[in-house]
Amino acid sequence: MPYTLTFREKLESERFVVTAEVCPPKGCDCGEFLEKAQALRGIIDAFNVTDNQGANMRVSPLAPAALLIREGIEPILQLTCRDRNRLALQSELLAAAALGVTNVLALSGDYISFGDHAGSKPVFDLDSVQLLQTIAALNEGRDLSGAPLRGATSFYAGAAAAPEAEPFDLTLPKLAKKASAGARFFQTQAIFSPDHFPRFAEATRPFGAKIIVGILLLKSAGMARFVTKHIPGLKVPPELIAELEGAERPLDAGVAIARRLVAAVRPHCDGVHIMAMGKEDVIPDIVADITHK
Amino acid sequence: MIVSKQKPFLDILTALETASRVFLIGCAKCATVCKSGGEEQLWQMQEELTAAGKDVTGSVVIDEACHMLRVQRDLRAKGEMVTSADALLVLACGAGVQSVSAGSDKSTVAGLDTLFLGNIRRFGQFEQRCSLCGECRLNETAGICPVTLCPKGLLNGPCGGMDEGRCEVNTDAECAWYQIYSRLRDRGEAAPLVTTNPPRDFAKHLKPGSLKLEK
What ipTM was reported for this prediction? Predict the structure, then answer.
């Protein structure tokens, strides 16, 4: 069997990567989750396994990430600070390393009131910058209290970024902190206005982290309006909404928009992150122009 | 000041179910300012309880119900009004309720929910600015507390949900880090935005807190 480059090796050797998000099930049956990932094997370089996404309780991403590894598929484990204190975060990271997880996306996490356990206690013992520092410490073979580990981790850590959030001057220093705390790549919030993207790319380039741009599949005009209204930082321009509205088959229009966005940002980034929201079967069409294999 | 509000009257009635004779206790400080447990609210409560068939034996508004010795003294001074009651209904913060329960064998009923340490914006409008976290960071955050004003208590800048300076949890509110950023921009400073802050030390916030001044 020929040696396949890892996600990290691809990024570090300047290959353009494609990542996608797969949401673990609410329940312990990971069959459909694995089928979705298997169907995209060869197209997707690594799958982000979300962590109680939107503060909705699901199976811990650790198990589905480990199941992907067993199938020879590379996961990016998402880990939020919302549900775990620093002991739980560290022990989860050690467990992930023991199961072969290498890529971790360190997140603060959506606030608990957005999800299905609104009365639960939000933890936020650490924030995303401090979680990245924690990962760096584990990689150096010690825990947050300085105690040595039996077996250091070797995580490739990433962080989130919101290129279209304003004021940009306020978001930038935190990205610098994330990079200096050990983030080697950024996976961004979905972008819709590629003209604004070079500003982000130029400002973050000195941080030395790879940039993977978020592309959200707009399935209909209604969905585009919904995310603009309800998801902070997502702003679908009116002309894209009009394009979806006028389309005979809105999903096809959405795929075409996503494909255009991929082409527009490609010269300014190191990869794209596709969020297909359940329509993972159209991902091959979205990334069809990328011929890096 | 400690901001509180009255529990729903039906909840209070339920808590007083087995008591037919009730003595009322208010507080002249915070609960008076919040209009949850001052003189006026005690009168209203007396009327409502009487209408509900309770016998109100008397009432007292204590000058700082959190002052344990003062509560005991004021209750003693009320003599039979207190001793003949089946229950003491306290319209004061949780500290006040426990001053009463610590100094009396009577059934003590809390009539308020205690909400937060609040600043007074204007009459009748209260805002939380301090969480009593035990390790004040205001010197590092331009005098604006992210532990309190950010729902996530983030110490190193805004989360990904901030946009146009608004908080993702409550879009009517300004993001705490936007407030810090705006103030620094006006002053021409940047340090609090670029300095990485360490995690909080929750060992400095152990419950129950206590402090004994050196003589």
Answer: 0.93
